[in-house]
Amino acid sequence: MELQMQVAKAVQVLNHDIQSCNRVAANQWLVQFQQTDAAWEVATSILTSNSSYVHDFEVELFSAQVLKRKIQNEGGCLQPEARTALLTALLLAAKRFSLGPPPLLTQICLALSALVLRSVEWKKPIEQLFAGLNELQEGHGNGSIAILELLTVLPEEVIEDQKNNATVSSARRWHFSQELLSHTPAVLEFLLQQSEDKVGEHIQIHERNCKILRCLLSWVRVGCFTEIPQNTLPAHPLLNFVYNSLQVFSSFDLAVEVLTELVSCHEGLPQVLLCRMQSLKDGLLLPALTSGNEKIIFGLSCLMAEIGQAAPGLIAEASPEALALADALLRCVSYQSDDWEIADSTLQFWCSLAGYLLRMEFERGSHKHMAFVMFSPVFTALLDALLLRAQVLFIISVFGTNS
What we know:
- The structure is a single chain.
- It is elongated and about 80 Å long.
- It folds into two domains: 1-182, Alpha Horseshoe (Leucine-rich Repeat Variant); 276-403.
- By secondary structure, the chain is mostly helical.
- It is built from 20 helices and no strands.
- α15 (277-291) packs antiparallel against α16 (294-310).
- The termini are far apart.
- Residues 26-84 form the Importin N-terminal domain.
- Pfam families: IBN_N, TPR_TNPO3_IPO13_2nd, Xpo1.
């Protein structure tokens, strides 16, 4: 207990003392403390005990960060019994702080995921963790919030650890990711249940939807949808949830990220999203162009360009949906903004479409001729729009915005 109080005092001095020499001394003491074996027990006790500290959970946040770093650097040296006890303690801490503060819950979940990755004696570590998550959800009304956060950082641990950390072998990471993906059906079902739950007692629905989207994005990046039959993906209810999230300003950016990631990885999705292009253009893009909402314009231009790049053959067929996409992107290029960011986001699409049209097989001459007829006015308008933007920006750069 005495050491806990010393830690709490040092954290308070580090963050709030007006004397820089005191802050430096506190920082040095905390750095040395983190390197001791006692830091394991002290940090764990701070997170799991009922003692409360002042200053907005700063001591608890520091303790969670200590455990995360020690697990990442020394977790492989812990005895199996110690790892199991630490898993139980971190799950208890996740339950205790399931309502936040969010940075603290995130650090606890990062520590949990790092621990599971390094628990080599567990033949199926994810299965053991998921059993603990089930108990957390059943025994605590707010457990789903902690589960969402943990499920978000678990795939990130695999990806980030592979890039930045050599303490875990590539074989271990591979087995970990494969076991992680084996739980895809249960994770997707959990996310679907959360997306359909309209009761928000402790957390606003829009905020929870953003958490669901972040979690789904992590799992998409690790390849979760490769684990289900590909013919079921276009009709998956979570896809509708993501698409509908485009309509909400607070979740728009995340929805764009998820859809962009999906389109780049799954060849059946561009056709599905292309069919929704007219409604996307009429319902979101045109109002954004009228009101000057550049966040929406830029996000949609990136998404639509990704759809077109993923399936240039579909666009070259010049269907009404394909022409709607081309027209929408042309409007994005023509939009007069202060920089080229929006227009730039579309250029790779135009290049890939032009290249596809030029490479079309000779034996499909009539089809090629039709495509050229349909898209020649589009590319002419594109050139005009780019020239106009260049002229306008040149005039502004020379004569100023009032010219």
